[in-house]
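Sample intake sheet
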Amino acid sequence: MKSFNHLLLVAAFLVGASQLQAQQKRVSPHETVSAVVDGSRVTISYGRPYSKDPKTGEVRKIWGGLVPYGEAWRMGADEATSLITQHSLVIGDTTIPAGAYTLYFVPNEDGTAKLAFSSALGAWGAPVNQKNDVARVDAKKESVEKDFDQFTVAIEKTASGGGVVKLIWEKTAYSVAFTVKK
């Protein structure tokens, strides 16, 4: 437990240092979402860009435009999106060990997508080297009724146990269900 607390402290320092360095360059607001799922805290920190271009006010094409198909996307704005989990997460047949990760997303035009967990921390944007990927897991795409003008990440508990990470923008949501390994 002592080494895990040390890991969390180092991860928090790296995320905080990159955020301090980037604050003057930020255009999009940033947010941290957190939930305790089956006794484990899961936390995601990310930038929240808008559908409208901050310089021109014009509505941007999000999926297949600002968020390119078939390429790594930083899952937000500015520095890399980070995830910290107290216990291992199980996603399908994949186990993500407890710790800190950079998250990024790879959507495809056919609707399939991958959520990637990288051990490379403290970067700006999406990791450029996949050799640090701990895992890439499938994300489920669905339509939502409400139009989300701002990129949104949510962590929700599910009634049957476990939880789901949701990425929502415009009228599209991607979700990844997980359970907590104890």
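Comment: The longest helix spans residues 2-22. The chain has one domain: 2-181.
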